[in-house]
Protein backbone atom coordinates (compact mmCIF):
# COMPACT_ATOMS: atom_id res chain seq x y z
CA UNK A 1 0.00 0.00 0.00
CA UNK A 2 1.49 3.44 -0.86
CA UNK A 3 2.31 5.80 1.95
CA UNK A 4 -0.14 8.68 2.31
CA UNK A 5 1.24 12.10 1.62
CA UNK A 6 1.91 14.59 4.44
CA UNK A 7 -1.19 16.59 3.69
CA UNK A 8 -3.38 13.52 4.02
CA UNK A 9 -1.84 12.58 7.36
CA UNK A 10 -2.29 16.12 8.59
CA UNK A 11 -5.94 16.15 7.60
CA UNK A 12 -6.46 12.83 9.38
CA UNK A 13 -4.62 13.71 12.58
CA UNK A 14 -5.86 17.26 13.12
CA UNK A 15 -9.44 16.34 14.19
CA UNK A 16 -8.11 13.65 16.54
CA UNK A 17 -5.72 16.08 18.22
CA UNK A 18 -8.42 18.72 18.57
CA UNK A 19 -10.87 16.19 19.98
CA UNK A 20 -8.30 14.92 22.47
CA UNK A 21 -7.79 18.47 23.72
CA UNK A 22 -11.54 18.87 24.19
CA UNK A 23 -11.91 15.56 26.05
CA UNK A 24 -11.63 15.13 29.80
CA UNK A 25 -14.39 17.46 30.91
CA UNK A 26 -16.08 14.84 33.08
CA UNK A 27 -19.58 15.60 34.33
CA UNK A 28 -21.03 14.23 37.53
CA UNK A 29 -19.89 14.53 41.17
CA UNK A 30 -16.38 13.54 42.19
CA UNK A 31 -16.26 11.00 45.02
CA UNK A 32 -15.93 12.24 48.58
CA UNK A 33 -15.82 9.83 51.50
CA UNK A 34 -18.78 10.22 53.88
CA UNK A 35 -18.08 11.91 57.21
CA UNK A 36 -18.59 9.45 60.05
CA UNK A 37 -18.14 10.27 63.72
CA UNK A 38 -15.60 7.75 65.05
CA UNK A 39 -14.38 7.20 68.62
CA UNK A 40 -10.91 8.51 69.41
CA UNK A 41 -9.85 5.31 71.16
CA UNK A 42 -11.16 1.99 72.37
CA UNK A 43 -12.71 1.72 75.87
CA UNK A 44 -10.17 2.32 78.65
CA UNK A 45 -10.96 -0.93 80.44
CA UNK A 46 -9.77 -2.92 77.43
CA UNK A 47 -5.98 -3.18 77.39
CA UNK A 48 -4.52 -4.73 74.26
CA UNK A 49 -0.89 -5.83 74.35
CA UNK A 50 1.43 -4.09 71.87
CA UNK A 51 3.15 -6.96 70.05
CA UNK A 52 5.39 -6.93 67.00
CA UNK A 53 2.96 -6.80 64.10
CA UNK A 54 4.95 -9.05 61.81
CA UNK A 55 4.28 -11.93 64.21
CA UNK A 56 0.53 -11.51 63.75
CA UNK A 57 0.28 -11.51 59.98
CA UNK A 58 -1.16 -15.03 60.06
CA UNK A 59 -3.08 -14.61 63.28
CA UNK A 60 -4.31 -18.21 63.57
CA UNK A 61 -0.71 -19.37 64.07
CA UNK A 62 -0.73 -17.65 67.47
CA UNK A 63 -2.66 -20.66 68.76
CA UNK A 64 0.44 -22.79 68.03
CA UNK A 65 -1.45 -25.75 66.61
CA UNK A 66 0.08 -27.23 63.41
CA UNK A 67 -3.11 -29.17 62.68
CA UNK A 68 -5.14 -25.96 62.76
CA UNK A 69 -2.58 -24.24 60.51
CA UNK A 70 -2.91 -27.02 57.94
CA UNK A 71 -6.71 -26.83 58.00
CA UNK A 72 -6.66 -23.06 57.46
CA UNK A 73 -4.25 -23.40 54.54
CA UNK A 74 -6.45 -26.01 52.89
CA UNK A 75 -9.59 -23.92 53.42
CA UNK A 76 -7.91 -20.89 51.85
CA UNK A 77 -7.10 -22.98 48.78
CA UNK A 78 -10.14 -25.26 48.47
CA UNK A 79 -13.16 -23.58 50.08
CA UNK A 80 -15.83 -23.12 47.41
CA UNK A 81 -17.01 -19.72 48.66
CA UNK A 82 -13.46 -18.38 48.34
CA UNK A 83 -13.07 -19.88 44.87
CA UNK A 84 -16.37 -18.29 43.84
CA UNK A 85 -15.09 -14.89 44.93
CA UNK A 86 -11.88 -15.43 42.96
CA UNK A 87 -13.95 -16.07 39.84
CA UNK A 88 -15.85 -12.83 40.47
CA UNK A 89 -12.55 -10.96 40.70
CA UNK A 90 -11.60 -12.35 37.30
CA UNK A 91 -14.93 -11.16 35.91
CA UNK A 92 -14.45 -7.66 37.35
CA UNK A 93 -10.90 -7.51 35.99
CA UNK A 94 -12.19 -8.42 32.51
CA UNK A 95 -14.85 -5.70 32.76
CA UNK A 96 -12.15 -3.19 33.70
CA UNK A 97 -10.12 -4.25 30.64
CA UNK A 98 -13.18 -3.59 28.47
CA UNK A 99 -13.71 -0.14 30.04
CA UNK A 100 -10.08 0.77 29.39
CA UNK A 101 -10.30 -0.40 25.80
CA UNK A 102 -13.42 1.70 25.19
CA UNK A 103 -11.30 4.84 25.74
CA UNK A 104 -8.98 3.93 22.86
CA UNK A 105 -9.54 4.04 19.09
CA UNK A 106 -10.80 0.98 17.29
CA UNK A 107 -8.74 -0.03 14.24
CA UNK A 108 -9.94 -2.57 11.74
CA UNK A 109 -9.27 -3.85 8.23
CA UNK A 110 -11.58 -4.72 5.38
CA UNK A 111 -11.00 -6.45 2.03
CA UNK A 112 -13.66 -6.84 -0.66
CA UNK A 113 -13.89 -8.44 -4.08
CA UNK A 114 -16.99 -8.29 -6.26
CA UNK A 115 -18.04 -8.96 -9.88
CA UNK A 116 -21.24 -7.53 -11.35
CA UNK A 117 -23.03 -7.38 -14.73
CA UNK A 118 -24.73 -4.28 -16.07
CA UNK A 119 -27.46 -5.17 -18.63
CA UNK A 120 -27.77 -3.25 -21.86
CA UNK A 121 -31.22 -2.05 -20.90
CA UNK A 122 -29.80 0.03 -18.07
CA UNK A 123 -26.53 1.08 -19.67
CA UNK A 124 -26.37 4.69 -20.98
CA UNK A 125 -24.86 3.39 -24.20
CA UNK A 126 -27.09 0.37 -24.53
CA UNK A 127 -24.13 -1.97 -24.18
CA UNK A 128 -23.96 -4.87 -21.82
CA UNK A 129 -20.88 -4.84 -19.51
CA UNK A 130 -19.29 -6.96 -16.79
CA UNK A 131 -16.76 -5.57 -14.30
CA UNK A 132 -14.72 -6.43 -11.23
CA UNK A 133 -14.08 -4.35 -8.12
CA UNK A 134 -11.30 -5.01 -5.60
CA UNK A 135 -10.60 -2.98 -2.46
CA UNK A 136 -8.43 -3.15 0.67
CA UNK A 137 -8.85 -0.56 3.40
CA UNK A 138 -7.95 0.18 6.99
CA UNK A 139 -10.61 1.79 9.16
CA UNK A 140 -10.33 3.79 12.38
CA UNK A 141 -13.17 4.85 14.67
CA UNK A 142 -12.90 6.79 17.89
CA UNK A 143 -15.42 8.24 20.34
CA UNK A 144 -14.24 11.52 21.84
CA UNK A 145 -14.98 11.45 25.54
CA UNK A 146 -16.21 15.05 25.66
CA UNK A 147 -18.18 14.69 28.89
CA UNK A 148 -16.13 12.03 30.62
CA UNK A 149 -18.63 9.18 30.19
CA UNK A 150 -15.93 6.67 29.27
CA UNK A 151 -13.71 7.95 32.07
CA UNK A 152 -16.56 7.48 34.55
CA UNK A 153 -17.18 3.99 33.21
CA UNK A 154 -13.53 3.18 33.78
CA UNK A 155 -13.70 4.70 37.27
CA UNK A 156 -16.75 2.55 38.04
CA UNK A 157 -15.05 -0.58 36.68
CA UNK A 158 -11.94 0.06 38.78
CA UNK A 159 -14.12 0.51 41.86
CA UNK A 160 -16.06 -2.68 41.12
CA UNK A 161 -12.78 -4.57 40.80
CA UNK A 162 -11.71 -3.24 44.19
CA UNK A 163 -15.11 -4.20 45.57
CA UNK A 164 -14.62 -7.76 44.31
CA UNK A 165 -11.10 -7.96 45.72
CA UNK A 166 -12.17 -6.75 49.16
CA UNK A 167 -15.27 -8.95 49.07
CA UNK A 168 -12.94 -11.88 48.46
CA UNK A 169 -10.81 -10.79 51.42
CA UNK A 170 -13.91 -10.52 53.61
CA UNK A 171 -15.13 -13.98 52.60
CA UNK A 172 -11.66 -15.41 53.16
CA UNK A 173 -11.49 -13.84 56.62
CA UNK A 174 -14.95 -15.18 57.48
CA UNK A 175 -14.07 -18.66 56.26
CA UNK A 176 -10.80 -18.75 58.20
CA UNK A 177 -12.56 -17.55 61.35
CA UNK A 178 -15.28 -20.18 60.86
CA UNK A 179 -12.60 -22.87 60.46
CA UNK A 180 -10.84 -21.75 63.63
CA UNK A 181 -14.06 -21.48 65.65
CA UNK A 182 -15.39 -24.82 64.39
CA UNK A 183 -12.06 -26.46 65.18
CA UNK A 184 -12.30 -25.13 68.74
CA UNK A 185 -15.90 -26.38 68.95
CA UNK A 186 -14.73 -29.80 67.83
CA UNK A 187 -11.91 -29.97 70.35
CA UNK A 188 -14.26 -28.85 73.11
CA UNK A 189 -16.83 -31.50 72.12
CA UNK A 190 -14.11 -34.16 72.06
CA UNK A 191 -12.99 -33.13 75.54
CA UNK A 192 -16.55 -33.18 76.84
CA UNK A 193 -16.94 -36.67 75.40
CA UNK A 194 -13.73 -37.81 77.10
CA UNK A 195 -14.88 -36.29 80.40
CA UNK A 196 -18.19 -38.12 80.12
CA UNK A 197 -16.48 -41.40 79.21
CA UNK A 198 -14.13 -41.05 82.18
CA UNK A 199 -17.05 -40.19 84.46
CA UNK A 200 -18.95 -43.20 83.11
CA UNK A 201 -16.07 -45.46 84.06
CA UNK A 202 -16.08 -43.93 87.53
CA UNK A 203 -19.85 -44.43 87.82
CA UNK A 204 -19.47 -48.08 86.80
CA UNK A 205 -16.84 -48.58 89.49
CA UNK A 206 -19.06 -46.84 92.06
CA UNK A 207 -21.98 -49.03 91.14
CA UNK A 208 -19.80 -52.13 91.36
CA UNK A 209 -18.64 -51.18 94.86
CA UNK A 210 -22.17 -50.38 95.97
CA UNK A 211 -23.29 -53.75 94.65
CA UNK A 212 -20.63 -55.41 96.81
CA UNK A 213 -21.67 -53.34 99.83
CA UNK A 214 -25.31 -54.21 99.23
CA UNK A 215 -24.55 -57.92 98.86
CA UNK A 216 -22.60 -57.87 102.13
CA UNK A 217 -25.37 -55.99 103.92
CA UNK A 218 -23.37 -52.81 104.51
CA UNK A 219 -25.90 -50.60 102.67
CA UNK A 220 -29.52 -50.69 101.62
CA UNK A 221 -31.07 -51.03 98.18
CA UNK A 222 -31.80 -47.31 97.95
CA UNK A 223 -28.08 -46.44 97.77
CA UNK A 224 -27.57 -49.20 95.19
CA UNK A 225 -30.39 -47.91 92.98
CA UNK A 226 -29.15 -44.33 93.34
CA UNK A 227 -25.73 -45.43 92.10
CA UNK A 228 -27.34 -47.32 89.23
CA UNK A 229 -29.55 -44.33 88.33
CA UNK A 230 -26.53 -42.02 88.22
CA UNK A 231 -24.67 -44.55 86.07
CA UNK A 232 -27.48 -44.78 83.50
CA UNK A 233 -27.98 -41.00 83.48
CA UNK A 234 -24.33 -40.53 82.61
CA UNK A 235 -24.49 -43.26 79.98
CA UNK A 236 -27.48 -41.53 78.35
CA UNK A 237 -25.46 -38.34 77.86
CA UNK A 238 -22.77 -40.01 75.80
CA UNK A 239 -24.62 -40.65 72.47
CA UNK A 240 -25.54 -36.96 72.08
CA UNK A 241 -21.95 -35.97 72.67
CA UNK A 242 -20.68 -38.48 70.12
CA UNK A 243 -23.24 -37.14 67.63
CA UNK A 244 -22.05 -33.58 68.25
CA UNK A 245 -18.44 -34.60 67.61
CA UNK A 246 -19.41 -36.25 64.32
CA UNK A 247 -21.50 -33.24 63.24
CA UNK A 248 -18.66 -30.83 63.95
CA UNK A 249 -16.26 -33.05 62.02
CA UNK A 250 -18.56 -32.83 59.01
CA UNK A 251 -18.96 -29.06 59.34
CA UNK A 252 -15.19 -28.59 59.54
CA UNK A 253 -14.62 -30.90 56.59
CA UNK A 254 -17.05 -28.87 54.47
CA UNK A 255 -15.36 -25.61 55.45
CA UNK A 256 -11.90 -26.82 54.42
CA UNK A 257 -13.23 -28.01 51.07
CA UNK A 258 -13.18 -31.79 51.36
CA UNK A 259 -14.80 -33.62 48.44
CA UNK A 260 -17.97 -35.72 48.91
CA UNK A 261 -15.83 -38.87 48.77
CA UNK A 262 -13.54 -37.53 51.51
CA UNK A 263 -16.54 -36.51 53.61
CA UNK A 264 -17.68 -40.13 53.79
CA UNK A 265 -14.26 -41.44 54.71
CA UNK A 266 -13.03 -41.62 58.28
CA UNK A 267 -12.32 -38.02 59.26
CA UNK A 268 -9.21 -37.39 61.31
CA UNK A 269 -8.45 -33.91 62.63
CA UNK A 270 -5.60 -34.88 64.91
CA UNK A 271 -5.35 -35.71 68.59
CA UNK A 272 -4.77 -32.16 69.83
CA UNK A 273 -6.60 -31.57 73.08
CA UNK A 274 -8.26 -28.33 74.07
CA UNK A 275 -5.72 -27.59 76.80
CA UNK A 276 -2.84 -28.02 74.32
CA UNK A 277 -3.92 -24.99 72.27
CA UNK A 278 -1.96 -21.85 73.16
CA UNK A 279 -3.97 -18.81 74.16
CA UNK A 280 -2.61 -15.45 72.93
CA UNK A 281 -2.33 -12.92 75.72
CA UNK A 282 -3.36 -9.96 73.56
CA UNK A 283 -3.41 -8.45 70.09
CA UNK A 284 -1.54 -5.50 68.57
CA UNK A 285 -2.92 -2.06 69.33
CA UNK A 286 -4.65 0.08 66.70
CA UNK A 287 -6.73 3.24 66.55
CA UNK A 288 -10.49 3.05 65.84
CA UNK A 289 -10.05 5.16 62.69
CA UNK A 290 -7.69 2.50 61.32
CA UNK A 291 -10.57 0.02 61.29
CA UNK A 292 -11.98 1.70 58.15
CA UNK A 293 -8.86 0.65 56.24
CA UNK A 294 -8.38 -2.75 57.88
CA UNK A 295 -11.86 -4.27 57.58
CA UNK A 296 -12.30 -5.72 54.06
CA UNK A 297 -16.08 -5.53 54.28
CA UNK A 298 -15.86 -1.78 54.90
CA UNK A 299 -13.41 -1.35 52.03
CA UNK A 300 -15.70 -3.38 49.77
CA UNK A 301 -18.74 -1.28 50.72
CA UNK A 302 -16.81 1.94 50.07
CA UNK A 303 -15.67 0.68 46.67
CA UNK A 304 -19.31 -0.01 45.85
CA UNK A 305 -20.11 3.57 46.84
CA UNK A 306 -17.36 4.88 44.52
CA UNK A 307 -18.81 2.85 41.64
CA UNK A 308 -22.33 4.10 42.35
CA UNK A 309 -21.09 7.69 42.49
CA UNK A 310 -19.39 7.24 39.10
CA UNK A 311 -22.69 5.91 37.78
CA UNK A 312 -24.21 9.37 38.25
CA UNK A 313 -21.58 10.84 35.92
CA UNK A 314 -22.24 8.10 33.37
CA UNK A 315 -25.98 8.86 33.42
CA UNK A 316 -25.44 12.63 33.16
CA UNK A 317 -22.99 12.24 30.25
CA UNK A 318 -25.42 9.97 28.40
CA UNK A 319 -27.92 12.81 27.99
CA UNK A 320 -25.32 15.03 26.25
CA UNK A 321 -24.22 14.84 22.58
CA UNK A 322 -21.50 12.35 21.67
CA UNK A 323 -18.81 12.92 19.04
CA UNK A 324 -17.48 10.01 16.98
CA UNK A 325 -14.66 10.28 14.44
CA UNK A 326 -13.96 7.83 11.65
CA UNK A 327 -11.18 7.49 9.13
CA UNK A 328 -10.48 5.24 6.17
CA UNK A 329 -7.28 4.71 4.20
CA UNK A 330 -7.04 2.10 1.47
CA UNK A 331 -6.88 1.20 -2.18
CA UNK A 332 -9.53 0.22 -4.75
CA UNK A 333 -9.35 -0.87 -8.40
CA UNK A 334 -11.17 -2.79 -11.06
CA UNK A 335 -8.19 -5.10 -11.58
CA UNK A 336 -6.33 -6.80 -8.73
CA UNK A 337 -3.00 -5.92 -10.33
CA UNK A 338 -3.79 -2.21 -9.97
CA UNK A 339 -4.23 -2.40 -6.19
CA UNK A 340 -1.66 -0.58 -4.04
CA UNK A 341 -0.79 1.81 -6.86
CA UNK A 342 -0.94 5.56 -6.36
CA UNK A 343 -3.86 5.85 -8.72
CA UNK A 344 -5.88 3.39 -6.64
CA UNK A 345 -5.38 5.18 -3.31
CA UNK A 346 -8.53 6.10 -1.42
CA UNK A 347 -9.16 7.75 1.92
CA UNK A 348 -11.95 9.35 3.89
CA UNK A 349 -12.65 11.24 7.10
CA UNK A 350 -15.91 11.59 8.96
CA UNK A 351 -17.39 12.96 12.14
CA UNK A 352 -20.74 12.17 13.71
CA UNK A 353 -22.49 14.08 16.45
CA UNK A 354 -25.44 12.38 18.10
CA UNK A 355 -27.57 13.35 21.06
CA UNK A 356 -31.11 13.14 22.34
CA UNK A 357 -33.51 16.02 21.73
CA UNK A 358 -36.81 14.72 23.08
CA UNK A 359 -36.57 11.48 25.03
CA UNK A 360 -39.62 12.20 27.22
CA UNK A 361 -37.74 11.93 30.52
CA UNK A 362 -35.66 8.83 29.84
CA UNK A 363 -32.33 10.57 30.53
CA UNK A 364 -33.67 12.28 33.65
CA UNK A 365 -34.96 8.95 34.93
CA UNK A 366 -31.54 7.36 34.39
CA UNK A 367 -29.92 10.12 36.42
CA UNK A 368 -32.53 9.79 39.19
CA UNK A 369 -31.92 6.05 39.25
CA UNK A 370 -28.16 6.52 39.49
CA UNK A 371 -28.57 9.04 42.32
CA UNK A 372 -30.88 6.67 44.18
CA UNK A 373 -28.38 3.84 43.78
CA UNK A 374 -25.65 6.12 45.13
CA UNK A 375 -27.80 6.95 48.17
CA UNK A 376 -28.38 3.25 48.74
CA UNK A 377 -24.65 2.55 48.48
CA UNK A 378 -23.87 5.29 51.00
CA UNK A 379 -26.49 3.93 53.41
CA UNK A 380 -25.02 0.45 52.96
CA UNK A 381 -21.53 1.80 53.64
CA UNK A 382 -22.65 3.57 56.83
CA UNK A 383 -24.51 0.45 57.98
CA UNK A 384 -21.41 -1.66 57.34
CA UNK A 385 -19.27 0.75 59.39
CA UNK A 386 -21.79 0.75 62.26
CA UNK A 387 -22.01 -3.03 62.21
CA UNK A 388 -18.21 -3.34 62.17
CA UNK A 389 -17.75 -1.12 65.22
CA UNK A 390 -20.53 -2.93 67.06
CA UNK A 391 -18.83 -6.25 66.27
CA UNK A 392 -15.56 -4.87 67.64
CA UNK A 393 -17.34 -3.66 70.77
CA UNK A 394 -18.98 -7.05 71.36
CA UNK A 395 -15.73 -8.88 70.59
CA UNK A 396 -13.76 -6.76 73.06
CA UNK A 397 -16.32 -7.40 75.81
CA UNK A 398 -16.36 -11.13 75.06
CA UNK A 399 -12.56 -11.22 74.90
CA UNK A 400 -12.29 -9.55 78.31
CA UNK A 401 -15.02 -11.48 80.14
CA UNK A 402 -14.20 -14.92 78.74
CA UNK A 403 -10.85 -14.93 80.55
CA UNK A 404 -12.55 -14.19 83.86
CA UNK A 405 -15.04 -16.97 83.18
CA UNK A 406 -12.29 -19.53 82.56
CA UNK A 407 -10.49 -18.64 85.78
CA UNK A 408 -13.70 -18.70 87.83
CA UNK A 409 -14.73 -22.07 86.36
CA UNK A 410 -11.31 -23.58 87.07
CA UNK A 411 -11.62 -22.58 90.71
CA UNK A 412 -15.14 -24.01 90.76
CA UNK A 413 -13.89 -27.36 89.45
CA UNK A 414 -11.15 -27.52 92.07
CA UNK A 415 -13.57 -26.69 94.86
CA UNK A 416 -16.14 -29.28 93.75
CA UNK A 417 -13.46 -31.92 93.24
CA UNK A 418 -12.32 -31.40 96.82
CA UNK A 419 -15.94 -31.52 97.97
CA UNK A 420 -16.41 -34.87 96.23
CA UNK A 421 -13.28 -36.30 97.81
CA UNK A 422 -14.44 -35.26 101.29
CA UNK A 423 -17.98 -36.59 100.65
CA UNK A 424 -16.61 -39.99 99.60
CA UNK A 425 -14.41 -40.21 102.72
CA UNK A 426 -17.22 -39.22 105.06
CA UNK A 427 -19.59 -41.64 103.31
CA UNK A 428 -17.19 -44.52 103.84
CA UNK A 429 -16.88 -43.50 107.47
CA UNK A 430 -20.67 -43.41 107.82
CA UNK A 431 -21.06 -39.70 108.58
CA UNK A 432 -23.10 -38.77 105.46
CA UNK A 433 -25.47 -40.54 103.15
CA UNK A 434 -24.79 -41.67 99.61
CA UNK A 435 -26.92 -38.85 98.20
CA UNK A 436 -24.22 -36.32 99.23
CA UNK A 437 -21.66 -38.28 97.22
CA UNK A 438 -23.94 -38.33 94.17
CA UNK A 439 -24.60 -34.61 94.44
CA UNK A 440 -20.87 -33.91 94.48
CA UNK A 441 -20.28 -36.23 91.52
CA UNK A 442 -23.03 -34.58 89.48
CA UNK A 443 -21.72 -31.12 90.30
CA UNK A 444 -18.18 -32.11 89.32
CA UNK A 445 -19.28 -33.50 85.96
CA UNK A 446 -21.30 -30.37 85.24
CA UNK A 447 -18.38 -28.10 86.22
CA UNK A 448 -15.85 -30.02 84.13
CA UNK A 449 -18.13 -29.82 81.09
CA UNK A 450 -18.63 -26.09 81.75
CA UNK A 451 -14.86 -25.61 81.96
CA UNK A 452 -14.42 -27.18 78.52
CA UNK A 453 -17.03 -24.76 77.17
CA UNK A 454 -15.39 -21.80 78.92
CA UNK A 455 -11.97 -22.59 77.44
CA UNK A 456 -13.55 -22.99 74.00
CA UNK A 457 -15.38 -19.68 74.39
CA UNK A 458 -12.13 -17.98 75.38
CA UNK A 459 -10.37 -19.29 72.28
CA UNK A 460 -13.33 -18.43 70.07
CA UNK A 461 -13.54 -14.93 71.55
CA UNK A 462 -9.90 -14.39 70.63
CA UNK A 463 -10.51 -15.54 67.05
CA UNK A 464 -13.65 -13.39 66.83
CA UNK A 465 -11.67 -10.35 67.99
CA UNK A 466 -9.08 -10.97 65.28
CA UNK A 467 -11.88 -11.09 62.72
CA UNK A 468 -13.59 -7.97 64.07
CA UNK A 469 -10.33 -6.01 63.88
CA UNK A 470 -9.80 -6.98 60.25
CA UNK A 471 -7.56 -10.04 60.45
CA UNK A 472 -3.77 -10.17 60.65
CA UNK A 473 -1.22 -7.41 60.80
CA UNK A 474 1.61 -6.53 58.46
CA UNK A 475 5.01 -5.56 59.83
CA UNK A 476 5.31 -1.99 61.13
CA UNK A 477 5.60 0.40 58.21
CA UNK A 478 4.83 4.10 57.76
CA UNK A 479 1.09 4.28 57.38
CA UNK A 480 -1.36 1.45 57.87
CA UNK A 481 -1.22 -1.45 55.43
CA UNK A 482 -4.24 -3.49 54.35
CA UNK A 483 -4.79 -6.50 56.56
CA UNK A 484 -3.49 -9.82 55.36
CA UNK A 485 -6.20 -12.20 56.41
Automatic annotation (TrEMBL):
Signal peptide positions (record): 1-19
InterPro entries in the cross-refs: MdtP/NodT-like (IPR010131), OMP_efflux (IPR003423)
Keywords, alphabetical: Lipoprotein, Membrane, Palmitate, Signal, Transmembrane, Transmembrane beta strand
Membrane topology: Lipid-anchor
Subcellular compartments: Cell outer membrane
Cross-referenced Pfam families: OEP
The keyword Glycoprotein is assigned to this record: no
Domain of life the protein comes from: Bacteria
Compositional bias ranges of the Polar residues kind: 119-129
Residues covered by region (Disordered): 107-129
Keyword Signal: yes
UniProt-listed NCBIfam families: outer_NodT
Family recorded in the similarity comment: Belongs to the outer membrane factor (OMF) (TC 1.B.17) family.
Record-given protein name: Efflux transporter outer membrane subunit
